[in-house]
Sequence to fold (949 residues):
Amino acid sequence: MSGFFRLLARNRLALAGLIVMGLVVLLALLTPLLPLADPDVTNTANRFKPPLSEGALLGTDHLGRDLLSRLMWGTRLSLAVGFAAAVIAATLGAAIGIIAGFYGGRTDNVIMRGVDMLMAFPYILLALAIVAALGPGLMNALIAVAAVNIPFFARNIRGITVGIAHKEFVDAARLSGMTDARIIATEVLPNVVPVIVIAMSTTVGWMILETAGLSFLGLGSQPPQADLGSMLGEARSALITNPHTSVVPGVMILIIVMAINLLGDGVRDALDPRLKSGALSRPMPTTLVDRSAPVPKPSDDGLLSITALETQFRVKDRVYRAVGGVDLHVEPGECLGIIGESGSGKSVTALSIMGLVASPPGVITGGAAYYRGDDLIGAPYEVLRSLRGRHVAYIFQDPLATLHPLYTVGDQLIEAVRAHHPTPRAEARVRAISLLKSVRIPNAEQRIDSYPHEMSGGMRQRVGIAMALANDPDIIIADEPTTALDVTVQAQILSLLNDLRRERGLAIIFITHDFGVVAQLCDRVAVMYAGRIVEGGPTDTILNAPAHPYTSRLMACVPELGQGRRVLAAIPGLPPAVDNLPTGCAFADRCHKVQPACRTADIPLSGPSDGNRVRCIFPMTASSEASA
Amino acid sequence: MTLALRLTGLSKDFPVGKRLFGPPRAVVHAVQPVTLDVEEGETLGIVGESGCGKSTLARILVGLLQPTSGTIEIAGKPLDNADPAVFGRMIQYVFQDPISSLNPRKTIRQIMEAPLRHLHGMSADARSARIREIFAAVNLREEFLDRYPHEFSGGQAQRIGIARALAADARILILDEPVSALDVSVQAQVLNLLADLKTQFGLTYLFISHDLAVVEAVSDRVAVLYFGAVVEVGPAEQVFARPRHPYTRLLADSAPVVGRPLSAPEARETELPDPLNPPRGCAFRARCAHASALCGETAPALEQQPDGVWVACYHPLTGAG
Fold:
C-alpha cells in the first residue's frame, strides 16, 4: 500500500489532483457544520448581489439565495450522486462482466449482445429515455447515469475475467473442491479488483458531469434543492447580465473533474502492473554504454571476438551484474555453444554484442566486441543498424513472437532483404522464395503468402532462420532456437543449421541448455554460471572430461536417453542472485569440493588458450570424477 | 498387483466453428478411444509431441473435461460423477507452469488449505497439522506459508504445487510436464522429490512429458501418443531402446544424444496430419517408410506382441535396432 502511494506521489499532477480532491471532499463533508446561510431561503430583495458583498461572500442568485451556501451544498450533493453512480455502475457492471467471462459460451454470448445493444445508444439519449420513463428527480438521474455506464464496466471486466478464468490456478481451485461461486469470489474477484478501481477512478469525473448535465436540463435535482448542474441551469438566463451566478458552479465543476481525472490517471499508472516497474520510457535504439575502465585492445584472432564484456541492469538502487566479464571468440564456419541455466547471462551476452539489451535498465559497463577488428560496443546507432541483420543476425526462441502476426511471411522476408539492399520488390520476392527454399520449406512459392499463424512451429522457425540468412550474414546468433519445438522438428532444424554453416561458412553462436544439442552441433562450448564463463574449450574435451564441478554436476543431473531408469544426482540449492554475488567462486555454496580458498578471492579462467580453460582452483580430475 | 486406474475407450471430441444453433461445422477428435491400465504404485510415462492429445487426456482424467465416450475406473470403482471435487479426492494434478498455477493474490497457506477444507472438511487445527506434515515431506520451510507466490523460484513453486496435490490425499497424481518449465539443475531436485514421495505415500503417477530422456528416467512403463491415439505401450527400458512402432523409432532417433552424430532422421519435409481433415487409416502413414496399402484402409488396433509390448502397427519393427 505504501508502495502504491509512493508511485502515485511520483506523478506530480496526480498528487496535485489528490490534494485538491481531498480538500473538496473535506469541505463537502464539513458543510453541515459550517456557519452558512440556509441555501434554500429566498430573499428577492437581495437578488443578484455581486461577489464579496456584505453577508454573501460569493453573492446571491436570482432569488437572493446565498451562492456560497448553495455551492457548498450543491457540491456535496453532486459528489455524492457521482460517487454513488460510479459504485453502482462498477458493482453491477463488474458482476455482469465476471459472470459472462467466467461461464463463457452461450451465457457470455447472450449477456454481451445485450450489453452491446445498450452501448449502441448515444449515452445522453439513453439517460434521457430512462429519466423520461421514471420521471425527473435526482434519484432517477442517478439510476440513469449508473445504467448508462454499466456496459463500459461489463466489457472491461469481462475481458479481464476471460483471461483469469483460463488460468491454471482456477483449475487447481476446482480440483481443490471449490464451487463456482466460491471460485468467483475468492479466486477471480481479487484479481479483477485493481481493474475495477482503475476503471472507476477514470470514470467518476464523467459520471459527475453526466449527472450535472441531467440536472442542467431540469431532469435531475428539483428546485429548490441545489446541485452543481441545477445551479448552472438556473443561472443560464442571467448569463450575460450576472455572469458570476454561472461562473461559480462552473468553476467548481471544472476543479472537481480536473482533479478527479488527474488523480485517476495517477491511480491507473500506479496500479497497472505493466507500468509498475516505472518502465514508462521507451527503450533506446542501442544499449547505453558506460565504460569506466580502458577499452581492451583487439586481439587479432577470430571473426568476432568479445573481450571482458560486462553488462549490468540498474533498477532503482540495485545493480544486477548480468554479464560479469565474458571473453568469447568465433571463427568463420565455426559453431560456438554457450550453455547455462536461466539467469546465467547467456542471452544478455548475445544481445550485448549488437547493443540490443533494452536501455534503461541495461548498461554495458566494460569490455569490447570486435567484429573484423572494429569495436561494436559504443558504435554509433547508424553503424550498428547497418551491421544488424546484414553481418550479424539473430534467431530467437519463439518464432511466433518474432514474426509480425499481421503481415505475411513473404512481406517480412522482403522487408528484411530490402532493409540493407534496396532492390525492386519483385526481385526481393524472388530472393525471399529462394531463401525459403534454402531452409527447405516445401512449396515455397505458395507458402510465401502465408501468415505466421498458418504455419506450424517448425515452419515458423525455418522462416526465422530464412530471415536471418536474408543478407548473407557472417555470424548467426541463435538463442535457444529449438527449445520451443518438438524433438522431431528440432532434429530437422539442427541439421539445417549444420548444413548452412558448412555450405556458407557461417559462424554460429548457439545458446542452449541442452548438452545433447551442444554435443551434436558445436565445435567449442562455453559454460556460463552467474554471468561468467566457468569453463570453455573443445566440445569433446568438456563433455568427456568436464573440469569445473558445475559442468560435471550439471551433466550428471540431466537425464539422457538410453541410460534407463535412475536416480539423478541433483545439485542442491539455487544459483546466486546477480545483484549480490559472493566473493570468490559463485558456485562455492553448491559445490561438493568447496575449500576456504574458493571464497577468498576472484578466481581467473586458466588453462591453455586453445584447450580447456576453467575457472576453478580445484578442478575435477579423472580420479576425483570417478569418486564423485 | 491391483489396478489403480483403468481407462476404457476414453475419447474426447472438440467441436470447431460453433454456431448459435445447429451442429458445429467440424469435429476434432483430440483423443481417440484410449484403453489403458495403470497398476498401483506404478509410474506410467506418457510421451508425445505437441498436439498429440496428452494434456487433453490428463484433463479428462482429473474431471476438468468431460469425456465424449468411455469410462474411468479408479481402484475398481467406476467414476461416473462429473464433479471435480469427487475426482479431487482420488486423483490430483500437478501443473506445468508452477507460478501460474498459484493464485497471485493468495498466501501459500490459503492455497494449501483449500483442498483440506473443501475436499475433506477438516478443522483449523487438523488443517495446520496436516500442512506441517506435507511441508516437511516436500522439504519446504513453514515460514513460506505466509508469503505470496511471486516470492518463490520456479522450483520452490513447483514443490508448493506438489504439496497442494498431496494435501488432497489422492492416491493417483497426474504430473503434466512437471519439470519442463524448470532449469535443468532444479529439474533433478524435483524429479528426485517425486520419486521419494511415491515410496513414502504409496502413490501412482501418470507422468506426461515431451522429454523422452526424463520419461525414460522416471517411468516403469511408457505409452507413446500420436495424433490422439496410443501407438505403443511397453516397459520404459525397452520402448526407446528397442522401439516397435515406426513413430517411436523416429522420436528416439530425433532426441539429441551426446556422442551420436547429428542427422535428421526424417529427411522428407513432413507436417503433422491435419486434425480437421484426418487421414484414413494409420495417422502416421504419410511419414512412415514401412507403409503399405493395408495402412491406408483402417487404423491398426493396439495389439500385444510376443514380448509383451503393445503396438498399434501392421508392420511392427523387429526391435533389433
